[in-house]
Structures are given as structure tokens and as C-alpha cells.
Amino acid sequence: MRRSFSCLCSMFLHLATCWGRRSNPDSCTRCDLQLRCNCSCRGFTRVPEVTEDALVLDLSSNNISEVTDDDLRGHASLRGLDLHGNGLASIRPSAFDSLWSLEELDLSDNRLTVLDQRWFGELAALQRLNLLNNPYSRLGSPLFDGLVRLRILEFGGPVLEELRRADLRGVTQLDRLTLHANNLSRYESGTLAKIWPLVRLTLNLQRPLLTDLALVSAVLNDVLNPETHLTLEDVHMTSNTAIQVFRDTNINRTRHLTLRNCTVSDEAVVSFLMAVNGSPLTSLSIDGLTLTGEGRWTHANWTDLSRMDEFLVRNLDLQDVFTFFLIGNLYFLVQNQRKISLINSKLFLLSCYSTRLMKDVQYLDMSDNLLTDLTLGYMLCDGEDTLTDLRVLNISGNNLKSLSTIIRLSARLTKLTYLDISRSGYSSMPPRCSWPASLRYLNVSRAKLTNATPCLSTTLEVLDLSNNDLKSFTVSLPLLRELHLSGNKFLRFPAGRLFPNLQTLTIRSNTLNLFGGSDLQSYRRLENLQAGQNKFVCSCDFVGFLQLLLKGGGNISLTDEEDSYRCDSPLYLQGASVSRVHLSVVVCHQVLFVSVSCGVALLLASLVCVLLWRLHVFWYLKMIWAWLKAKRSSQQRQRRSNGEGSEALISFDAFVSYSERDASWVENFLVPELEEPSGPLQPLTLCLHKRDFLPGRWIVDNILSAIERSRRTVFVLSENFVRSSWCRYELDFSHFRLFDAGGDAAILILLEPMTTDDVPKRFCKLRKLMSSTTYLEWPQEEEQREEFWRSLRNALKEET
Ligand SMILES: *[C@@H]1O[C@H](CO)[C@@H](O)[C@H](O)[C@H]1NC(C)=O
Ligand SMILES: *[C@@H]1O[C@H](CO)[C@@H](O)[C@H](O)[C@H]1NC(C)=O
Ligand SMILES: *[C@@H]1O[C@H](CO)[C@@H](O)[C@H](O)[C@H]1NC(C)=O
Ligand SMILES: *[C@@H]1O[C@H](CO)[C@@H](O)[C@H](O)[C@H]1NC(C)=O
Ligand SMILES: *[C@@H]1O[C@H](CO)[C@@H](O)[C@H](O)[C@H]1NC(C)=O
Ligand SMILES: *[C@@H]1O[C@H](CO)[C@@H](O)[C@H](O)[C@H]1NC(C)=O
Ligand SMILES: *[C@@H]1O[C@H](CO)[C@@H](O)[C@H](O)[C@H]1NC(C)=O
Ligand SMILES: *[C@@H]1O[C@H](CO)[C@@H](O)[C@H](O)[C@H]1NC(C)=O
Ligand SMILES: *[C@@H]1O[C@H](CO)[C@@H](O)[C@H](O)[C@H]1NC(C)=O
């Protein structure tokens, strides 16, 4: 029943810690910049794929039941592996073989019933190993033999029954050892004896302490030496038998003792005090103390605890609050210590009488109790002489409301240097105050302050005002080295000239929008700055400045994580880490960008123009445009004259295209010969631009209509022709007409000998015509001209 209940509990805990986290069955990519991969609480049922560069891999609180040989292969650089809380039941013998660099391994809270020496065979670098809370009943073969670097070892669990000398062979040098041996029933004397120098030893021997004191003595006698800081966990002492341990073992040589989770009766307290009477114990800490009795400790009033320097009780629980009556003669408990802490113990009153007894106290920590301004007044004897040696006073986390009260009460604590009044209800600061001149450190964080006035002592070196409601800070503090202003409502940095000695400034989680060199320049000595988690406006200046700072440029280092500097605006950068933002030139140098790009565009445009001009593209364009326009008007014309029949359109036998310079040849030879022939020859009608073009019409129109109204087009080719642009149009139009008509409408006459090569390349049409159409050459000799004319006539008369 109990077991199933605890099982339910642990399942619930598992659910609670893992609540709301999604899982990805195969791989885990949640690695930070330092290559620490946190794959905790993701519901993995097997070791996920993780980058092989990972340095730390946290797989805790998953449901990985087995680690196979391949799961961690290749992770040669892994330093830390955490498999805590997985229900892990099986690990293959060579599962960790590739982890040569592993320094920390946590296998605690799993279901390993047998431990295998082969797991650790290759882990020569291992420094810290945690095997706690697994259900193995013995360690087995010498597990740790090869772990020469091991410094921290934690093992044991609820069913560990036996420890033999061979189990810890090879373990000789540990700094810290934790042993949970609640159910230990066999201990071979000497098993832990060789370990040295044990700085901290934590033992959980709950059941043996109740039932088998001989075993406890054997363990303690093996491990204890005066330098070892001993912690005993889960100590349940309600009879004085358990206390016997403190008498029978050399625990009485221990100087530092911590009891954690400790339940004691009055009887046990008295026995304990008697046992430590005159012992060299210098520090006693009890964390989690449940007192079942009524405070009848008078039998121990003579206890000599003069060597005890430090006494700490945290989390005190009085089971019988109403009958508990701690009598005033316990002054021996507090008489000699310099350091007293009574933390979280529901203490609401400490009388002036008892504090007057604490004449040596220099450090008093009463944090997390129920003190009020009134009871604080009693405790400090209303400002009269008490605690005159006090250097440190911590009353953090009490029900204090009036800052003036603590200022008044502390005035006589002339040695006070350190005052922690954080987590209180202070809401306003008086305008002027007088603090002890010795005060150097003041912590008023997590209060409700809305203003900071010159009340703050000018002697302060460290001031913590974080998590208040401050908006500005204008008090000059010439000696201040550290200022904490995180969690307030600052819109800008306080002026640096107020703190000429400031070295550390934290101003995280405020409402800063941006900061720059000018803000920080006034802090002459600033070295460390934390300003993350603000609502940064990622302007170019800010991003540039911060990236420089993050890289370590300048004398100020940013000591908080890079990732806490995130952009809040502009919108498209919201949430982006400032260190990874790349603002483009367009955004950062707008004017420069615009002028340069305009210049480049202009240059390009002119280059293109030159190129186009060189390639005569303009000429082509002009021509196509002209042709299109002409074509349209010709179509209109055609539509208009459609009724008159197509023949009516043709009114000339030939349109003669020639250059003005060849006009004399046309007028003197061609026209007379063809239009007014001698003899029986039929006259032909020619269309000449000079004569037949309608004045007032657009020339291209004229050309086109002339070509259309003629059956043929005669080109009079010469050097001049090639140079005349109108002729080129004519040529081109006729060329189009060739396609329109589908026949051989063009006739070429070469006035002077020319070859295709004499025609410039861009007149590709002319060149093509010259090579495809037979042309007539104008003969220089008279006698051959007859033949020329005949050929021409024939060509003209042919049906197209
Ligand atoms: C890993 O993440 C879990 C929550 O997912 C958190 O509780 C834990 O502290 C993280 N561990 C480290 C080392 O940051
Ligand atoms: C863990 O895995 C086992 C099977 O391997 C399953 O029975 C159990 O329900 C799982 N637990 C959780 C919390 O996912
Ligand atoms: C403690 O050990 C005994 C044997 O010595 C065993 O019978 C018992 O089950 C163990 N207790 C627990 C809680 O495992
Ligand atoms: C405190 O010790 C008691 C035994 O004395 C144990 O039952 C309990 O679980 C412990 N509590 C914690 C929080 O460890
Ligand atoms: C400490 O305990 C041992 C017994 O283990 C005893 O012989 C010795 O006298 C004790 N020392 C003191 C100072 O009580
Ligand atoms: C201790 O208390 C007894 C009475 O219980 C008293 O007689 C004795 O003087 C006290 N010793 C000291 C040192 O106070
Ligand atoms: C005062 O107590 C709080 C809570 O226990 C602690 O955080 C703080 O560090 C203590 N201050 C000093 C000066 O020890
Ligand atoms: C001030 O007190 C708070 C809360 O007790 C603590 O967390 C903080 O570390 C203290 N500040 C300094 C600078 O010690
Ligand atoms: C850094 O400090 C040195 C002297 O401490 C000073 O000369 C130098 O100008 C400082 N550099 C910057 C960037 O402030």
C-alpha cells in the first residue's frame, strides 16, 4: 500500500515537473551556445540523437529504460551526462566506452539493480559520479578501480545492504562522499577508511541509527577526521540511545557538523548537548529541525560550547507550539558564538534580554521569520546598547514596513557594515536619514520602494535596490562599487557622474529601450554590466554597439548571458537575439545607400544607352515603330477602299526606291526608258517619291502606300542608297510586303559594282535580298544597256 502510494507520488512528481513540455521521439536540438544540451523532461524513451559536439547532455526526467552500445557512440567530447530520474534498468557494458572526456555522470534515481564495472572502464577522466537511489543491494566487483580522477562519489540507496572492503578498492582520494545506507546491515570495518582527504561527508544512516549503533560507529570511526565536514541526514532521535553514537564514536572530534532533516525530543536534545560538551565543535548547522518536546532542556545548562563559533538553525518546526517554553537560561547556547542564524523558524520575538547575552555576535541572520517593526524594536532593545559587535544583520523576509524604524534602531550598531533588509514591505524612503558610519552594504531588494532619496548613506559601497518600483535614481554615492537596479522601471541609465567609483551595474528587466557609448562613458570605472531582458529597440547604432560590447570591445564586459539581449522592436526582429541580428546596409546607411545606388543606376543606364547606340537599336526601334504606325494607317486605308476592288489599289507598275543622290540616273535614264519607250514597247507607270507622293502626308505613310499601290519595288542600289535612311525604310517595307504578297516583289538594280560585304551588317535584309534575289547591274558600256533594259522590263512585267 505504502509502496504503491509512493509510486503514485513519484509519478505525480514526474508529471508535475514535466508538465506542458512537448516531446520529439528521435532527436534533441535544445543546445545553447556553450553546447550544453538540455533534453530534460521531454518524454524520450530512448537516448535521442544529439550533436556530437555537445559538451553537456542533460537527459534527466525522461523515460529512458535502456542505454545501448550505440546510443552514445561518437560523443568523445562530452563532459557531463545526466541520466537522473529515468527508470533506467539496463546499461550495456560498453555503452559509455566512447566517452573519454566525461567528467560528470549522474545515474541517480533509476532502477539499476546491478552495477557493472565495465561501464566505467574507459571513463578515466571521470571526476564526479552519482549512483544514489538505485535498487542495488551491493556494489559488487570493485567498480571504481580505474577512476583515478574521481573526487566526488555518491552512492547507496534504499536497499543497499552490504559494504565490503573490496567494494571501494582504488578509491583513496575523494573530496566529497555521499552515502545513503538507510538499510545497511553489514559493514566490513575499514571499507571507507582509506579515503582521504574527505572534505565533506554526507551520511544517511537513518535505520542503523535506530537499530544498529555498532554499525554506525564502525562507519563513523572509519571516515571521520577533524577536518571533515560531516552531514547526517534524516536523523530521528527521540530516545537517548541514538545519542550514544555521539558519545561512543570519535564524532566528538568533529569540528563541523550538519544535521539535515532531524527530529529530536527533549531528551535527545539534552543528551546531544551533553555529548558535545567540551567538544571541539566549531560549527553546528541544523537544517530542518523538528522539536517534538516542550523545551525542557534545563539539565544541559552547564554545557560547555565555548568553542562553537557558528550556530545555524534553518526550517525549525515546533510540533507543540503552545506548550513549548524555551527558558531563558539557555544563554550558553548563544553566548559564545560569533555567527548565529535562525532562518525560517517562525520566530516572531527575540527578547532584548537574549540579544544582550549574545555579546560576541558579529553575524546575525534572522531572515524569513515573523519579525515586525515592533518586535524588531524589542530585539534591538529600542536602540539602546545591544549587539554592539554586530557587523552583519540579515532580517530579510520579515514583516517590516517602516524604513525609519530600522534606521533609528540601527543607529547604535556602530560596527554594522552589512544590512540586508530585502524582501520586506518598505514602500517609501524618508528624505534624510542617519545610518551607522560603518555601513557599506545595503540590500533593500524586493521591497516596494517607489523613490530613492538622499536617505541612502554616502558610505555605501554595495547597494541592491533591485525588484522595486523605481523609475529614476539621482542620489550621488561617491564610494559605491556595486549598484543593482534590476527589475525596476528605468527607461534610461542613471547618470554615471553620480557614481565615480562604480564597477558593477545590473539593470536587467527594466524598460530600457536602448543605450549606447554616451550612456556608459559617464561611468568612469565601470567594468561589469548586466542589462539583459529589456525591451530593446534594435536600431543600427544600438546593435552595433552591443555586438561590440559582447565581443569584448571596450573596457566594459557584459556578464549576463548573451541570449538575454533581445530585440523588442522593430516587429520583424521581435524576439531575436541582438548578438545574432544582422541589419542590412539598406537599413543602417540609408542616405549613402540611396545615393550610391542612384549613381550606379545612372552609370548603368548610360552604359546601356551607349551600348544600344552602338548596336543601332534605336534605329531598329524607330523603324519598327514607324512600320507599325504605317501598317495601321494602311490597313485603315485598305478598309476604306475595300469596295473599289483590289485591282483598284494597284496603280503603278513599280515603285522606285532610290537615294536623292541617284536622282539624276533615275530621271535621265530610268524614267524616260520605261515611261516613254521608243517604238512599240508598252509604257510602264512608275511611282517616284518626288513626283507621286502626296504632299502633306507623313513620309512613311507615303512610302508604304506607294509600295502597296505598286506591283513591284525597284531598288536602285548604290553607296548613297545604303546611307539614306528613307531608302532603308522602303527596303524594309517592301520586305514585309514580300511576305504579305508571298512573291518576288523586289527588283534590285546595282548602279555601281557592290558585293554583299559592302553593305553594313545591320542591313541584314538588304544583304539577304542581295544574296537571294538576282539583281541587275547597270552596265557602264552603252552596248550592253539595251540588254539591261530588256531584262528590267521582263522582270517588271512578270506576274507577282
Ligand atoms: C533543463 O530544462 C529543465 C526544464 O525543461 C529545467 O528544469 C532544468 O533546470 C534545465 N537544466 C539546465 C542545466 O539548465
Ligand atoms: C515509460 O515507459 C514505460 C515502458 O517502457 C511505460 O510503461 C510507462 O508508462 C512510461 N512512463 C511515462 C511517464 O511515460
Ligand atoms: C532491507 O534489507 C532487508 C535485508 O537485510 C530486506 O529484507 C528489506 O527488504 C530491505 N528493506 C528495503 C526497504 O528494501
Ligand atoms: C526526514 O526524515 C524522516 C525520517 O526521520 C523521513 O521519513 C522523511 O522522509 C525525511 N524527509 C525528507 C524531506 O527527507
Ligand atoms: C571522544 O570519544 C572517544 C571514544 O570514541 C573517547 O575515548 C574520547 O575521550 C572522547 N573525547 C572527548 C573529548 O569527549
Ligand atoms: C543549571 O541549572 C541548575 C538547576 O536546574 C542550577 O542549579 C545550576 O546553577 C545551573 N547552572 C548554571 C551554570 O547556570
Ligand atoms: C540574508 O538572507 C537571505 C535569505 O536567507 C539570503 O538570500 C541573503 O544572502 C542573506 N544576506 C546575507 C548578507 O547573508
Ligand atoms: C539582496 O537580497 C536578495 C534577496 O534576499 C538576494 O537574492 C540578493 O543576492 C542580495 N543582493 C546582493 C547584492 O547580495
Ligand atoms: C580602457 O581603460 C584604459 C585605462 O584603464 C583607458 O586608457 C582606455 O581609454 C579605456 N578604453 C575605452 C575604450 O574606454
UniProtKB/TrEMBL annotation:
<dbReference type="InterPro" id="IPR017241">
    <property type="entry name" value="Toll-like_receptor"/>
</dbReference>
<dbReference type="InterPro" id="IPR035897">
    <property type="entry name" value="Toll_tir_struct_dom_sf"/>
</dbReference>
<keyword id="KW-0472">Membrane</keyword>
<dbReference type="Pfam" id="PF01582">
    <property type="entry name" value="TIR"/>
</dbReference>
<dbReference type="InterPro" id="IPR000483">
    <property type="entry name" value="Cys-rich_flank_reg_C"/>
</dbReference>
<keyword id="KW-0732">Signal</keyword>
<dbReference type="GO" id="GO:0006954">
    <property type="term" value="P:inflammatory response"/>
</dbReference>
<dbReference type="Pfam" id="PF13516">
    <property type="entry name" value="LRR_6"/>
</dbReference>
<dbReference type="GO" id="GO:0005886">
    <property type="term" value="C:plasma membrane"/>
</dbReference>
<dbReference type="GO" id="GO:0042497">
    <property type="term" value="F:triacyl lipopeptide binding"/>
</dbReference>
<dbReference type="InterPro" id="IPR001611">
    <property type="entry name" value="Leu-rich_rpt"/>
</dbReference>
<dbReference type="InterPro" id="IPR003591">
    <property type="entry name" value="Leu-rich_rpt_typical-subtyp"/>
</dbReference>
<dbReference type="GO" id="GO:0043235">
    <property type="term" value="C:receptor complex"/>
</dbReference>
<keyword id="KW-0395">Inflammatory response</keyword>
<keyword id="KW-0812">Transmembrane</keyword>
<dbReference type="GO" id="GO:0004888">
    <property type="term" value="F:transmembrane signaling receptor activity"/>
</dbReference>
<keyword id="KW-0520">NAD</keyword>
<dbReference type="GO" id="GO:0002224">
    <property type="term" value="P:toll-like receptor signaling pathway"/>
</dbReference>
<keyword id="KW-0675">Receptor</keyword>
<feature type="disulfide bond">
    <location>
        <begin position="433"/>
        <end position="455"/>
    </location>
</feature>
<keyword id="KW-1015">Disulfide bond</keyword>
<feature type="transmembrane region" description="Helical">
    <location>
        <begin position="591"/>
        <end position="613"/>
    </location>
</feature>
<dbReference type="GO" id="GO:0045087">
    <property type="term" value="P:innate immune response"/>
</dbReference>
<protein>
    <recommendedName>
        <fullName>Toll-like receptor 2</fullName>
    </recommendedName>
</protein>
<feature type="signal peptide">
    <location>
        <begin position="1"/>
        <end position="20"/>
    </location>
</feature>
<keyword id="KW-0325">Glycoprotein</keyword>
<keyword id="KW-0433">Leucine-rich repeat</keyword>
<keyword id="KW-0391">Immunity</keyword>
<comment type="function">
    <text>Cooperates with LY96 to mediate the innate immune response to bacterial lipoproteins and other microbial cell wall components. Cooperates with TLR1 or TLR6 to mediate the innate immune response to bacterial lipoproteins or lipopeptides. Acts via MYD88 and TRAF6, leading to NF-kappa-B activation, cytokine secretion and the inflammatory response.</text>
</comment>
<comment type="similarity">
    <text>Belongs to the Toll-like receptor family.</text>
</comment>
<feature type="disulfide bond">
    <location>
        <begin position="352"/>
        <end position="381"/>
    </location>
</feature>
<keyword id="KW-0399">Innate immunity</keyword>
<keyword id="KW-0677">Repeat</keyword>
<keyword id="KW-1133">Transmembrane helix</keyword>
<dbReference type="Pfam" id="PF13855">
    <property type="entry name" value="LRR_8"/>
</dbReference>
<dbReference type="InterPro" id="IPR000157">
    <property type="entry name" value="TIR_dom"/>
</dbReference>
<feature type="domain" description="TIR">
    <location>
        <begin position="650"/>
        <end position="796"/>
    </location>
</feature>
<feature type="disulfide bond">
    <location>
        <begin position="31"/>
        <end position="37"/>
    </location>
</feature>
<dbReference type="InterPro" id="IPR032675">
    <property type="entry name" value="LRR_dom_sf"/>
</dbReference>
